Amino acid sequence: MIYGKNGKFITIKKSGSPLEQGMEKRLTDVREKKSSAQSNNEALKESENENSLTAYNIFSKFRLLPVVAFLSFALIIIRIPNFFDENQTNSDISVIATPATAQGNNEDSAPLKKGSTAGKKAKAPKKEQPLDPVLFTRSEIELLQELSRRRKELDAREQTIVQREGLLMAAENRLEARINELETVKSDIETLITKYDAQEEEKFGGLVAIYEKMKPKESARIFDELDIDILLEVFERMKASKSASILAKMRPERAKEITSRIADRREMPKFN
Fold first, then answer.
1. Is residue 172 included in any domain, yes or no?
2. Does residue 154 lie within any of the structural domains?
3. Which end of the chain is more exposed for a tag (fewer CB within 10 A), N or C?
4. CA dist., res. 33 & res. 55, Å (int)
């Protein structure tokens, strides 16, 4: 089929002549070229569309890059002060902890054994860096000052307690020494009392034996004139039967006085 000038299809019937076959072949070649040209045009359009889309995507990416870069830069600027604050805090903490850790390391490294092989020497300990007050913040300096003040107060209180303990210990020692002295005095007094009682018993025992052997009338005559204290000591040691017979022979006034004095006598208290 071919198109005519009026736009209608023209149908060419096949014939066996060489001229007609040549024309038909040319028409076929023209149609193929036309269809290939149309397909090429469509392919070019599609490639152009793809290129335009790719360029748009690239352009859109290049437009987003400045925004992303700006945001990243802003985040970095915001983050930098916090980073330095954290580093400063960590450095302050490490500086505060340095004396304790250094002391612990020195104590741990003290009992190290000497080198087992000749020629090996222990590594010299690193010198401690002096603390720089500039590294501390104001609050940390105030805290250290407060800790130092409290340490001084505790030291003073401990000193006072030690002094009081010393005074109490001295007073306790003096009290114990005084108690020992009193115990010694008590023992001496008891010993003296025992000796005195023994001597008194021996002395008045002899007098009692003498007066018990005498007649009641003779004993009564002597007792009427005898000192009342000696008389009472003798009467208390005599047997009741002997003292009663002697008391009956004495003057009534003297017998009455002896009776009342014996009733009023009190026994000396004994040490517990």
1. no
2. no
3. C
4. 32
Helix axis angle, 228-237 to 138-213, nearest 10° = 80
> pLDDT digit string (tens) for 229-270?
888 888 888 888 888 888 888 888 988 888 888 888 755 555
Q: Name the domain count of the chain.
A: 1
For 69, the domain range is 17-102
Q: What is the pLDDT of residues 158-176, one digit of tens each?
A: 999 999 999 999 999 999 9
Compute the half-sphere exposure of residue 199: CA atoms within 13 Å on the CB side of its CA: 6
Shortest CA distance to 268 belongs to which of 210, 192, 207, 205?
A: 192
Asked if 189 and 215 count as a contact pair (C-beta separation under 8 A), the reply is no
Nearest to 250 by CA among 229, 225, 230, 228: 225
Per-residue model confidence (pLDDT) at position 171: 93
Residue 37 lies in a domain: yes
Which has the closest alpha carbon to 212: 248, 255, 241, 254? 241
Residue 40 lies in a domain: yes
pLDDT at 129: 58
Residue 232 near residue 266, CB atoms below 8 Å: no
